[in-house]
């Protein structure tokens, strides 16, 4: 029996804004721009000829548990020239939400060093909020010698602080626990990609150099190496995801998986090829969720389909994110602007956030939908799932290059309230 498919109609778009960090070379960006233009033309023509099962997104409308405006903690209208994620949100634990934002202007980009790589120190601030009360539990200021800072939760309140040259493990009290230098070629185009496994127990560090991809899987607590692989690749665009003992990485032919302990359980060839807006993440130890433009596919490690859903052509799915329990999968729904010809100039992805959709991963029913608080003044947004599934945090921003925004906390319903994904809502 074929997997259920669904088409959803997007919410009314707001002003377009960039939501992607540019991680590719100009050649890769140009090829993706051409692919998008072709796909758009074909898709619009196909949509005109094919009847579509459509239903409007019925975003939940209940008020948030609490709401915080970052202007109350950091008052600045300064527009940074080269930051790609000026504001970030992440749950460190079920009762602790971290909000990190840039506080100082990076120096001008060094010629030939790529986007977002400044020639001087950058300042960041992390504020920890009590999830139940919205009160501040702690703050920490960072000075980063070069490039951006990214905070990635692991487990039990710990998190990674990743820069271009180093990845460090911290406790929720900002005590440094571990440190790992990244590769000697840690500046673009040879920067390392760091991702944490769905359960927060493993880290994959991926570095591409001269068409060779090196993958290292390490333990998040001890930083001990669990596995190392080297694979030839035909692209400088690096996408990876980590499982407990498995690493998935992107090739031009699709998703490939490697493991030292369970090679018999893995696909022998790449699966789910995609030309545009491809992202993937482990849902649990045995399943991978991948998005390709408006389609979500969930497969086992052999590439066999477990679930598939198709949204309408004017919607794009991004940021597949599993909760630490593996019980929920969240995705961001965005829209491309109407003017296709103005898109993707040298890889500048211009998309309009619409909302978040959360699936119950046991039944693959839709559990919750929430529209971003976006309007003409808040065109950029992000979301985070709490580790034990109790909360959803949403960031609605005012400007992609400014450290501002509104953070709202919601409580999605239990899994028993999920809605079938195969029927219109």
Structure characterization notes:
The protein is mainly β. About 5% of the residues lie in helices and about 40% in strands. The chain contains one helix and 28 strands. The longest helix has 24 residues, at about 25-50. Residues about 1-55, about 340-350 and about 375-380 have low confidence and may be disordered.
Concise structural overview:
This protein has 425 residues and is mainly β.
Secondary-structure blueprint of this entry?
Blueprint: E1 17-18, H1 26-49, E2 66-69, E3 87-93, E4 96-102, E5 122-130, E6 136-144, E7 150-153, E8 159-162, E9 166-170, E10 176-181, E11 192-196, E12 202-209, E13 212-219, E14 225-232, E15 240-242, E16 247-251, E17 254-258, E18 278-284, E19 287-292, E20 295-300, E21 305-310, E22 316-322, E23 328-335, E24 350-360, E25 365-371, E26 380-385, E27 392-397, E28 406-410
Antiparallel strand pairs: 1-24, 2-28, 3-4, 4-5, 5-6, 7-8, 8-9, 9-10, 11-12, 12-13, 13-14, 15-16, 16-17, 18-19, 19-20, 20-21, 22-23, 23-24, 24-25, 26-27, 27-28
């Amino acid at each position: 029996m074929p997997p259920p498919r669904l088409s959803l109609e997007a919410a009314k778009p707001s002003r377009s804004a960039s939501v992607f960090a540019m991680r590719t070379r100009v050649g890769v960006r140009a090829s993706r721009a051409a692919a998008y233009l072709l796909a758009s033309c074909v898709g619009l023509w196909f949509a005109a000829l094919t009847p579509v099962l459509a239903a409007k997104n019925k975003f939940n409308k209940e008020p948030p548990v609490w709401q915080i405006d970052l202007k109350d903690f950091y008052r600045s209208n300064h527009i940074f020239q080269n930051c790609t994620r000026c504001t970030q949100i992440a749950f460190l634990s079920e009762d602790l939400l971290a909000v990190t934002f840039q506080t100082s202007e990076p120096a001008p980009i060094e010629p030939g060093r790529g986007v977002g790589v400044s020639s001087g120190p950058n300042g960041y601030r992390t504020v920890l909020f009590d999830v139940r009360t919205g009160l501040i539990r702690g703050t920490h200021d960072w000075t980063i010698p070069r490039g951006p800072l990214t905070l990635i939760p692991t487990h039990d309140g710990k998190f990674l602080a990743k820069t271009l040259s180093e990845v460090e493990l911290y406790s929720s009290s900002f005590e440094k626990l571990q440190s790992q230098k990244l590769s000697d070629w840690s500046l673009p185009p040879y920067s390392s990609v760091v991702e944490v496994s769905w359960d927060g127990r493993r880290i994959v560090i991926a570095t591409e150099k001269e068409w060779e991809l090196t993958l290292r899987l390490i333990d998040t607590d001890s930083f001990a190496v669990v596995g190392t692989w080297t694979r030839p690749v035909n692209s400088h665009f690096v996408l990876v995801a980590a499982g407990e003992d498995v690493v998935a990485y992107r090739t031009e032919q699709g998703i490939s998986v490697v493991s030292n302990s369970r090679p018999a359980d893995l696909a022998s060839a790449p699966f789910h090829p995609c030309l545009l807006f491809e992202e993937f993440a482990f849902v649990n130890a045995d399943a991978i969720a991948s998005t390709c433009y408006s389609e979500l596919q969930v497969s086992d490690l052999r590439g066999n389909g477990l679930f598939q859903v198709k949204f309408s052509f004017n919607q794009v799915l991004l940021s597949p994110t599993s909760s630490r329990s593996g019980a929920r999968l969240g995705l961001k729904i965005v829209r491309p602007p109407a003017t296709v010809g103005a898109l993707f100039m040298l890889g500048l992805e211009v998309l309009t956030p619409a909302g978040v959709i959360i699936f119950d991963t046991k039944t693959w029913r839709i559990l919750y939908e929430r529209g971003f608080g976006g309007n003409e003044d808040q065109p950029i947004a992000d979301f985070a799932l709490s580790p034990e599934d109790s909360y959803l945090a949403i960031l609605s921003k005012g400007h992609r290059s400014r450290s501002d925004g509104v953070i709202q906390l919601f409580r999605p319903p239990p899994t028993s309230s999920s809605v079938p994904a195969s029927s219109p809502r």
